[in-house]
Specification:
mainly beta; four-stranded antiparallel sheet; 102 residues
Length: 102
């Protein structure tokens, strides 16, 4: 199933295509700008915007990995085995994630 998700600042639209493990981001103000993220073999169970509208979090199948993509500098960060839910501080600067360690 696919879904459309507006960024918190309404400048971007994210299309999540779970069946293809792909995320496509389009800019509302710049018709030329587009970004495509392919999760690969890890699969894609969900994706969401971080409060700053400059980062996207993607959760792999079976919650084995959370990947955070930066639209600013194209950096990628990983959180292994995220468990439960996650939450953001009121100002959006901090994110709380439970992580399972062996």
């Amino acid at each position: 199933m696919s879904s459309l998700i507006w960024s918190p600042d309404s400048h971007y639209l994210m299309v999540v295509i779970r069946k293809r493990s792909t995320i496509v981001i389009k800019s509302i103000s710049d018709n030329e700008w587009m970004s495509k993220i392919e999760q690969g073999l890890a699969g894609l169970s969900e994706a969401f915007w971080l409060p700053d509208s400059a980062h996207i979090a993607a959760i792999s199948e079976f919650k084995l990995k959370m990947t955070i993509y930066s639209l600013i500098d194209k950096s990628i960060s990983y959180i292994s085995n995220p468990k439960g839910s996650w939450s953001f501080s009121k100002n959006g600067l901090y994110m709380v994630v439970l992580e399972r360690h062996e």
